[in-house]
Structures are given as structure tokens and as C-alpha cells.
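We treat protein structure as text, and this decision shapes the records that our systems exchange. Such a record has a labelled line for the sequence and another for the C-alpha cells. The record that follows is passed on verbatim for readers who wish to inspect the format:
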Amino acid sequence: MEFERRRRKNGRIDLAPLVDIVFNLLLFFLITYSISLDPAIRVRLPESETAEARADEPIVISLTREGGVFLGDRPVALEELGGALQAGLRLAPERAVRIRADREAAVGLLVQVIDRVRTAGCSAFSVVTERP
């Protein structure tokens, strides 16, 4: 005896499971994506065993190994650094200044920046390092 097979008139694929998988993948990547808090200026920090972590929002000065000086994320000439710091410290005199110097930056440039920070009226500054 021969049975007759039913033929489907609608041969479509259900897309709901595919949409669920795509949304789950999107959610997974959004949750696991880590946002970097460091600025885009690439500086390799020297290591220090006695480094302390601080939670306040300081003024950040970055020194690159090529001799570039950045106040926050904008480049600034060394001669203009003192005036820019004084303007920033007038708004919040209790803010600390952090100096992020590349480990291959010239020591003379670092000393000049420290002098500019002190003449701007800031006594609470630190040189940022990283733990080994």
C-alpha cells in the first residue's frame, strides 16, 4: 500500500530564533567590552613597588618619549604650561597634578615640567608609575 505525502505549501524559515541569537551576542559583547579610562596618548609608565592608587580627579600632564607635553588630552607648549595650570588650579585649588612621563622621556624635560607645576602654585603633584 502506498501512502501519499503531504506537501507543504508554505516552505519558509522562522527567523525569530535567529534574531534572539543575534541580540544575545550583541548583549554579550556590550557587557564584556571594557572601556579604557586612560587617554589615547601612549605612555609606558615606569614601575614602582610603593605606588599608591588615588581616586580623585587630578589634572594630568603627559610627557611622551619624543618630548611632547600634553595637558589632559591636548598638546601644550612647555612655555604655556604654567599659565594653563594656573587657570585650571584657580577653578579648583585643591586638585592634585599627576605627571605621566614615559620611561624613555628625557629627565631634563620632566624636571622642567615639575618646575612649571611648582611655579603655577601647586604643591600636591605626583609622578605616575605602575606596579611590576
